[in-house]
UniProtKB/TrEMBL annotation:
SUPFAM superfamilies: Glucocorticoid receptor-like (DNA-binding domain), N-terminal domain of MutM-like DNA repair proteins, S13-like H2TH domain. It is an enzyme of class 4 (lyase). Keywords: DNA damage, DNA repair, DNA-binding, Glycosidase, Hydrolase, Lyase, Metal-binding, Multifunctional enzyme, Zinc, Zinc-finger. Residues 2-81 form the Formamidopyrimidine-DNA glycosylase catalytic domain. PANTHER family: ENDONUCLEASE 8. Belongs to the FPG family. Its cofactor is Zn(2+). It holds the Pfam family H2TH. Its EC number is 4.2.99.18. Residues 295-329 form the FPG-type domain. The keyword Zinc-finger applies. The keyword RNA-binding does not apply. This is DNA-(apurinic or apyrimidinic site) lyase.
Length: 329
């Protein structure tokens, strides 16, 4: 499932390419036909992400709420205005960073390193989801052919966005959106960050539930998934089974600030980079390989990078949890 950084990146892509424009909306699959008819031809006025959900506002007090879930993805094609903090020039979701200019492709096909440059228009086809892969598009056909089960297609004169496989795709009223937002925990990139920190600490301290479960609870804090959960707990030196009410306040505050730090890195680079202080070849290796950018995630049975203890893999609420029983006592 996409974690918070991916959804923020998608929202920013909509901000650059769709907001302020009249949008043609359809449902080639048919499952979203009624909703598409409500916003077809309307101007998109806002795009925002909160945690794992994205909200697109249209004139007429209508919002499109999208939750990608486990299988959802957006495909963008056409003349896409690439933001250097969102995607690389070849259209793949990747990092734009001054550390170098040579592209590096990781094992998921992402170009995760390119030079900083001004936004530019380029003919590309981009898939934006947690497992991001670039797809070729020679621009020979417009609008692009519908491929597979497209729940919703959104188009301007020059740009197309196709949504496949979401958990939620619904047109809602401002009141309905407010109700959804009220149920979501704080997101460091939305609203006042200090207020978000206070909400997170207070919510965690009210619960006897394990902190490893609370970090995945979207009503406690928004956007954290399996990877960030494992890495944040390791970085905080915290046993994932510790009840939230027993986690010291200063540790909870550090967790929130660490989430803010890691989330911004994820939005800027497109990678869930959770190891600090990497430079040169170590940085390039980490950008090229997911296995080199995490402390404990996906390292079951391997020695801890700090103490050498074997990393433990267990299940917590039917999700895989990786942690070090020595460093996280």
């Amino acid at each position: 499932m996409p974690e918070g950084h991916s959804v923020h990146r998608i929202a920013r892509q909509f901000e650059r390419n769709f907001v302020g424009r009249a949008i043609s909306v359809s449902s080639p699959q048919g499952r979203f036909a009624d909703g598409a008819a409500l916003i077809d031809g309307s101007t998109m006025t806002r795009a925002m992400a909160v945690g794992k959900q994205m909200f697109l506002e249209f004139e007429g007090d209508r919002w499109l709420r999208v939750h990608l879930g486990l299988y959802g993805a957006w495909d963008f094609s056409g003349d896409i205005l690439i933001d250097p903090t969102i995607a690389s020039a070849n259209g793949r979701m990747g990092q734009t960073n001054q550390r170098g200019t040579d592209p590096i492709y990781d094992d998921a096909g992402e170009n995760s390193l390119t030079s900083i440059g001004a936004p530019r228009k380029t003919r590309v086809h981009v898939r934006m989801s947690e497992q991001t892969k670039g797809l070729s598009d020679d621009g020979s056909e417009w609008p692009p052919p519908v491929v597979g089960q497209v729940r919703a297609r959104m188009m301007t004169d020059t740009t197309c966005a196709d949504l496949r496989g979401p958990t939620a795709c619904a047109v809602e009223t401002p009141e309905q959106i407010d109700a959804v937002l009220a149920r979501l925990g704080p997101d460091p990139l939305v609203g006042d960050e200090a207020e978000g920190e206070a909400r997170f600490v207070a919510s965690a301290h009210r619960r006897s539930v394990a902190i490893g479960q609370l970090l995945m609870d979207q009503s406690v804090v928004s956007g954290i998934g399996n990877v960030y959960r494992a890495e944040m707990l390791f970085r905080a030196g915290t046993n994932p089974h510790t009840p939230g009410k027993n986690v010291p306040t200063d540790v909870l505050r550090r967790m929130w600030r660490d989430w803010s730090h890691l989330l911004r890195i994820g939005v800027d680079t497109g990678q869930m980079m959770t190891m600090d202080g990497l430079t040169g070849e170590a940085w390039r290796s980490a950008m090229a390989s997911r296995d080199d950018r995490h402390w404990v995630y996906h390292r079951a049975g391997l020695p801890c990078r700090v103490c050498g203890t074997e990393i433990v893999l267990e299940e917590m609420q039917a999700r895989k949890l990786y942690w070090c029983p020595t460093c996280q006592t």
